[in-house]
Design a protein that fits this description.
InterPro entries: Aldose_1/G6P_1-epimerase, Gal_mutarotase_sf_dom, GH-type_carb-bd. The chain contains 3 helices and 26 strands. The protein is mainly β and about 325 residues long. The longest helix has 6 residues.
C-alpha cells in the first residue's frame, strides 16, 4: 500500500517543505520563489530536476532560474524593459544588460507564503501563494493587485502542478506566465547523455533577432526539430535557445525525455493554455535541458501580431486563470 507524508525541513540551509509518496520525494522552497527544487525516486536514484550543489548555492540564490521549476511572471524578455498594456507603458528594470531587455519577471526569487501542506492516503501536497498589492516591492514596477497560488501534489502517479492567477484589483491586468522547468540529462544513475532522446509538441519556430526577440517571422525547421515532433531527437544536437509555437498532439501538450538504456520516459504534460514553448539546453554542453511552457510569445506586449495568436490576454477584476501540468514516468513495455 502506498504511503505519503509532508513535513517541514531544511534543504541546503533553506526552509523547505518535503513531500513523499511511495518511492517519490519532492522538495519545495517557498522563500525562493515557490521553486519546486527536487523531484526524485528514492528507490531507483533517479533525480529528474536539476538541483544546486553546495558549490552552486551562491549562484542559485542570485539567479535561481536554471534549477528546479521556477515561476516566471511575466516571462522571458521585454524590449528595453517596455511593457505596453491598455494604453499605458510600464517600465520594467533592464536586467539583461548585454541585450537591453528585461528578463524573467519578479516572482522567481522572492518569498512566497506557505498556505498549507499535508498528506492524505497516497498523496502529499503543498500550496504556496504570493500576493501583490501596494505594500509589496513588486508593485512599484508592476502596479497590479493579484494573487498567484501554486499547488504541488505528489503521488505514485508522479508530480502534479496546479497554478492559478486571480486579479484582486479594480482594472484589467496582463496574465503572462511560464515555468523555467530544468531537467537533468541524464536523470538516471549510470546513464549517459548519449542514452537520451526527447520529443516536444512544438509547431513553428519563431525567428529571433540579435536581442533574442521575435521578428514576427518563422524559420524553416531543421531535420532534428522535425524529429523531436515525432520519433525523437538528441537533446544536445546543437545549442538550443529556441522559441516555438505549441502544437498539441491528440489533445496533449507535452515533452518526453527518454532514457533508452533504462527504458524509462519522463513525461512533462502541460495544459493547452501554454501556446508557446521555449527550449534551452545549456548551450548544447549537456547536463540539463529546459522545456519551458509559456502562455505568451516573447515580448508579446510590444508585438503587432494578433493577441490571441501570441497569448497576450488579461484578467478582468475578480477573474481567475488556472492551468495544470504533471511530471510522471512511463516504462518501456517488457
Amino acid at each position: 500500500m502506498a504511503t505519503s507524508s509532508a513535513f517541514e525541513g531544511i534543504y541546503q540551509g533553506q526552509r523547505a517543505i518535503y513531500l513523499r509518496a511511495d518511492a517519490y520525494e519532492a522538495v519545495m522552497l517557498p522563500e525562493t520563489g515557490g521553486n519546486l527544487i527536487a523531484f526524485q525516486d528514492r528507490i531507483t536514484g533517479c533525480r529528474f530536476l536539476r538541483e544546486p550543489s553546495q558549490e552552486e548555492l551562491a549562484r542559485f540564490r542570485e539567479n535561481p532560474v536554471v534549477w528546479g521549476i521556477p515561476v516566471l511572471f511575466p516571462p522571458n524578455r521585454y524590449e528595453d524593459g517596455r511593457f505596453p498594456w491598455r494604453g499605458r507603458i510600464y517600465q520594467l528594470p533592464v536586467n539583461e544588460g548585454e541585450r537591453d531587455n528585461h528578463l524573467h519577471g519578479f516572482l522567481h526569487a522572492i518569498p512566497w507564503e506557505v498556505e498549507s501542506f499535508g498528506s492524505k492516503g497516497s498523496e502529499s501536497f503543498v500550496t504556496v501563494a504570493v500576493r501583490i498589492d501596494e505594500d509589496h516591492p513588486v508593485y512599484r514596477r508592476f502596479p497590479f493587485r493579484f494573487t498567484i497560488r501554486l499547488r504541488y501534489a505528489l503521488s505514485p502517479d508522479g508530480l502534479a502542478q496546479q497554478v492559478a492567477v486571480r486579479n484582486d484589483g479594480d482594472e484589467p491586468m496582463p496574465c503572462l506566465l511560464a515555468f523555467h522547468t530544468t531537467l537533468n540529462v541524464p536523470f538516471a544513475p549510470g546513464s549517459k547523455e548519449s542514452d537520451y532522446s526527447f520529443k516536444l509538441t512544438a509547431g513553428r519556430r519563431w525567428e529571433m533577432n540579435e536581442r533574442m526577440l521575435p521578428t514576427g517571422a518563422f524559420m524553416e525547421l531543421a531535420p532534428e526539430e522535425e524529429a523531436m515532433k515525432g520519433a525523437g531527437a538528441d537533446p544536445f544536437w546543437t545549442s538550443l535557445d529556441h522559441h516555438y509555437t505549441a502544437e498539441p498532439q491528440m489533445g496533449r501538450n507535452r515533452m518526453e525525455l527518454t532514457d533508452r538504456k533504462r527504458g524509462m520516459t519522463l513525461v512533462y504534460d502541460v495544459g493547452t493554455s501554454y501556446k508557446q514553448w521555449m527550449l534551452y539546453n545549456n548551450g548544447g554542453r549537456g547536463e540539463f535541458i529546459c522545456p519551458e511552457p509559456q502562455v505568451n510569445l516573447v515580448n508579446a506586449p510590444n508585438s503587432n501580431l494578433p493577441a490571441e495568436e501570441i497569448g497576450l490576454f488579461g484578467l478582468e477584476p475578480g477573474e481567475i486563470w488556472e492551468e495544470r501540468a504533471r511530471l510522471y514516468v512511463k516504462l518501456r513495455p517488457s
